[in-house]
């Protein structure tokens, strides 16, 4: 799988969201645009369909066969085949995509210390542009620079990841039912299933969050203790103690933290 991120302005002044940022990397079915070759016409820029491997000419060609393939198949994303041109185009959402590097994330600059006892209650929701990554059973399950960080008194932050940046095909509804948060509402739980390996209740989401927390709708949060690795800005996360709270402890966050023995009534 390849992870893509929408280009900063998406090729448009206002920017654009994309719901197809995880793609396969199929082998090309041909070396050129066969429709152009049949007409003995040199193709324009070649695009590879990232669903089926079809190769077609881009919109700069008179045939625009890559776009016609989308019209016929509904396959949304095609990437440039020319050497040195690392980009893709999502026909459905009409946005340019750039590959997210699979190299280890560079460490972000240190942030000022934050005491969890200065976090508010009710919790606050804050955007975070650091690279957040969740890994499990040898797979990157989620990766984003668009997380939402929930800050609540006595708790390390919880990072919520947009569904477009999560490999949702690896998530299976859990059998454990739901829990209720007095602030955010009813939480639904998810198993992470990679091949034969299943991590029960490793993630949760709020399908219908309470007013004040609607930004979290359908975002996913992960228990660091139930997957193999979580990182924020290249830094490994330490899990909050306990089997209920899912806070992420990084170097800038200061405790003491709720979750351990004797802290239930904090």
Uncertain regions: pLDDT < 50 for 5+ in a row? none
Shape: elongated
First and last CA, distance: 43 Å
Q: Nearest-angstrom radius of gyration?
A: 22 Å
- The helix tally amounts to 2
- Based on secondary structure, the structural category is mainly beta
Strand order of the largest sheet: 2-1-7-6-5-3-4
Strand content: 35-45%
Helix content: under 10%
Taking the sheet with the most strands, its summary is: 7 strands, antiparallel
How many beta-strand segments?
A: 22
Order of helices and strands: EEHEEHEEEEEEEEEEEEEEEEEE
Could you report the average pLDDT, rounded to the nearest whole number?
Answer: 89
Domain UBP-type: 16-115
Protein name: DUF427 domain-containing protein
Pfam families: NTP_transf_9 (PF04248), zf-UBP (PF02148)
Region (Disordered): 101-121
């Amino acid at each position: 799988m390849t992870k893509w991120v929408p280009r900063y302005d998406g090729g448009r002044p206002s920017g654009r969201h994309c719901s197809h940022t995880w793609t396969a990397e199929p082998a090309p079915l041909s070396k050129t645009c066969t429709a152009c070759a049949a007409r003995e016409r040199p193709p324009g820029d070649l695009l590879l369909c990232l669903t089926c491997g079809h190769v077609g000419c881009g919109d700069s060609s008179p045939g625009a066969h890559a776009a016609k393939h989308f019209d016929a198949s509904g396959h949304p994303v095609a990437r440039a085949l020319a050497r040195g041109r690392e980009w893709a185009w999502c026909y459905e959402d009409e946005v340019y995509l750039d590959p997210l590097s699979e190299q280890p994330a560079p460490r972000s600059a240190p942030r000022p210390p934050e005491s969890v006892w200065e976090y508010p209650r009710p919790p606050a929701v804050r955007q975070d542009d650091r690279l957040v990554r969740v890994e499990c059973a040898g797979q990157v399950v989620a990766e984003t620079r668009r997380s939402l960080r929930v800050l609540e008194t006595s708790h390390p932050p919880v990072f919520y990841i947009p569904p477009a940046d999560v490999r949702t095909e690896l998530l299976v509804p859990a059998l454990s039912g739901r829990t209720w948060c007095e602030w955010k509402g009813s939480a639904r739980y998810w198993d992470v299933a990679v091949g034969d390996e299943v991590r029960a209740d490793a993630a949760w989401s709020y399908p219908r969050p309470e007013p004040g927390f609607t930004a979290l709708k359908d975002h996913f949060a992960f228990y660091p203790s139930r997957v193999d690795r979580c990182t924020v800005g290249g830094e490994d996360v330490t899990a909050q103690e306990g089997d209920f709270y899912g806070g992420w402890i990084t170097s800038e966050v200061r405790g003491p933290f709720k979750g351990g023995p004797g802290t239930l009534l904090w």
